[in-house]
Design brief:
- The chain is an all-alpha fold and about 325 residues long.
- The protein is about 80% helix and about 5% strand.
- It contains 11 helices and 4 strands; from the N terminus they run H-H-H-E-H-E-H-H-H-H-H-E-H-E-H.
- The strands form 2 sheets. It has a two-stranded antiparallel ribbon with strand order 1-4. Strands 2-3 form a two-stranded antiparallel sheet.
- Helix 1 runs antiparallel to helix 7, helix 3 packs antiparallel against helix 9 and helix 8 runs antiparallel to helix 9.
- The longest helix has about 35 residues.
């Protein structure tokens, strides 16, 4: 068998690693929240989001250094689309998601602004340069400082009500780290197989980045949010997606262009508009009763299915 066929087969165990990695990350994240009295929402927005965004960071930096700007930027745009439309959509269909009011007041406005700025930069310059990358990192540092400075934490009573055993801190940290490693390895195995399969049928790099790579690197978010949702940890499930979308732009598009300016001519206006549209529509979905209903989740899934179908039929390289 040739290397491409082996890569496709190698993607199967990646799914197993994704599941157990998500289990470890959610259990470890909740345990850390209980130990330090930090809210699960903040853990979801930062620690869990950063852990599940690591595959996107690895893939985008590697693609940028190799000169594959379409995959690097397409991975971020496609992942943000996938995180909202597929992951939150699927989680909401499985079980309606309650939304923390802090998300509506702080993270969602920031995500809307950051997504708009990122979309305009990519559209006008055909990529992301060092100045834009530096600006994204500066916003990241300010956001993290503000979030932890103004975190209200959780009461002792609420801490005791969190599910799971009260693990010792070293065990919780080890479980979290093991979960992140499992997610990274699992995502890499799956992405390698999926990209090999896509190239075997002649799909362009832009479409690969927007769909196959984006879906593959978003599998940690999907696995983590689904597990958190089934465990009724909605703050982690929703916070993971919102935090991941923020970090995808601020961290990945902050670091990658500093190493090498990114050119992405294959990313079209419709891709950027779809990312911004989903971000904008998510806000009123969350604000209506502070929950994402099954009907809203079903709508998001239909939008994602339609977008992917359009890409493969009419997208670059079709």
């Amino acid at each position: 068998m040739n290397s491409e066929v082996l890569a496709v087969i190698g993607g199967v165990p990646g799914v197993v690693l994704l599941y157990y990695g998500a289990e470890g990350l959610v259990r470890g994240g909740v345990a850390i929240a209980r130990r330090f009295g930090v809210s699960p929402l903040l853990i979801g927005l930062t620690l869990v989001a950063l852990g599940t965004s690591t595959p996107e960071l690895v893939v985008s930096i590697d693609a940028a250094l190799c000169g594959s700007g379409d995959i690097s930027v397409g991975n971020v745009v496609g992942s943000n689309i996938c995180n909202i439309a597929l992951i939150l959509g699927l989680c909401a269909v499985v079980a309606p998601l309650t939304v923390h009011p802090v998300l509506l007041k702080r993270e969602m406005p920031l995500l809307v602004v950051v997504s708009l700025v990122f979309g305009v930069v990519v559209y006008l310059s055909g990529g992301v340069g060092r100045i834009a990358g530096t600006a994204f990192l500066l916003v990241l540092f300010l956001y993290l400082y503000y979030s932890f400075r103004h975190s209200s934490g959780i009461s002792e009573e609420a801490r005791e009500q969190l599910p799971g055993r009260l693990l010792k801190l070293p065990v919780a940290l080890l479980l979290t780290a093991a979960g992140i490693i499992g997610l990274i390895i699992g995502a890499r195995l799956f992405v390698s197989g999926a990209v090999a399969a896509a190239r075997m049928i002649g799909v362009s790099e832009a479409v690969i980045g927007l769909t196959v790579v984006a879906l593959g690197t978003s599998l940690p978010e999907l696995a983590t949010s689904l597990v958190a949702s089934l465990r009724r940890q909605n703050d982690i499930a929703v916070g993971n997606v919102v935090g991941s979308n923020l970090l995808n732009i601020l961290v990945i598009m902050g670091i990658s262009p500093l190493l090498r300016p990114i050119l992405a001519p294959g990313i079209e206006l419709v891709d950027l508009v779809m990312m911004i549209f989903l971000t904008l529509i998510l806000w009123p979905f969350m604000a209506t009763g502070r929950r994402i209903s099954r009907c809203e989740g079903g709508f998001l899934l239909l939008v994602y299915a339609g977008y992917c179908a359009w890409l493969f039929v009419s997208g670059p390289g079709a």
